[in-house]
């Protein structure tokens, strides 16, 4: 098992700066590093830069929290 780090990600586009927060594997959570993130449709989006690092959790804890989020979305109709 590895660790995941919650990161502030930034991407410059033609229309401006996009910011996102995502849990990524610790080996990729290096400030200034360019990463790809997986979209909800399964495609990969490149060009994201790790701007900040926050909390660190074990992989299984992050996966469990992700499933909780998906169940809440289904129950709340958001």
SSE succession: EEEEH
How much of the sequence lies in strands comes to over 45%
The average pLDDT is: 87
User: What gap, in angstroms, lies between the N and C termini?
Assistant: 32 Å
Q: Strands of the biggest beta sheet: in what spatial order?
A: 2-1-4-3
What is the count of helical runs? 1
Number of domains: 1
Low-confidence spans? none
Helix content: 10-25%
| Cα Rg | 14 Å
Helix-strand makeup class = alpha+beta
The rough form would be described as globular
Largest sheet: 4 strands, antiparallel
- How many β-strands, per DSSP? 4
Give the secondary structure arrangement, pairings included.
Blueprint: E1 3-13, E2 16-25, E3 34-38, E4 44-58, H1 59-76
Antiparallel strand pairs: 1-2, 1-4, 3-4
Any overview of this molecule?
The protein has one domain. It has 78 residues and is of the alpha+beta class. It has one helix and four strands. A hairpin with a 5-residue loop joins β3 and β4 (44-58). The N and C termini lie far apart (32 Å). It is globular. It has a four-stranded antiparallel beta sheet with strand order 2-1-4-3. The protein has one helix spanning 59-76; strands spanning 3-13, 16-25, 34-38, 44-58.
């Amino acid at each position: 098992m590895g660790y995941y780090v919650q990161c502030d990600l930034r991407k410059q586009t033609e229309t401006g700066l996009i910011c996102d927060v995502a849990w990524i594997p610790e080996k990729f959570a290096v400030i200034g590093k360019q990463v790809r993130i997986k979209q909800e449709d399964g495609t990969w989006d490149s060009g994201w830069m790790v701007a900040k690092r926050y909390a660190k959790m074990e992989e299984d804890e992050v996966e469990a929290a992700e499933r909780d989020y998906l169940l809440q979305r289904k129950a709340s109709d958001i």
